[in-house]
Amino acid sequence: MPWIKNLYDLPPEEEAEIPKVAGSLDEAMAALNEDREFLTRGGVFTDDAIDAYIELRKEEMDRVRMTPHPVEFELYYSV
């Protein structure tokens, strides 16, 4: 459905009705897990494939979480 209105000027109640994309990989993986019934319908994906994909992404998320941000490095490394 095309939007005819300026989305920046919507009242809060209309803005709340607009679907949002995930704000992080954590949120995206939670949404993927919640869509499991849809994804497995018709044998498109198996539960094992979905679980393996989520686990792989979790390993990546953990690595990112454990890595200092460049700004943190700049601020605190020389201390």
Automatic annotation (TrEMBL):
Pfam families: Gln-synt_C. Keywords: Ligase. One of its GO terms (cellular component) is membrane. GO terms for biological process: glutamine biosynthetic process; nitrogen utilization. Gene3D superfamilies: Glutamine synthetase/guanido kinase, catalytic domain. The keyword Ligase applies. The keyword Transmembrane helix does not apply. InterPro entries: Gln_synth/guanido_kin_cat_dom, Gln_synth_cat_dom. Belongs to the glutamine synthetase family. This is Glutamine synthetase. It comes from Serratia fonticola. The lineage of its organism: Bacteria, Pseudomonadati, Pseudomonadota, Gammaproteobacteria, Enterobacterales.
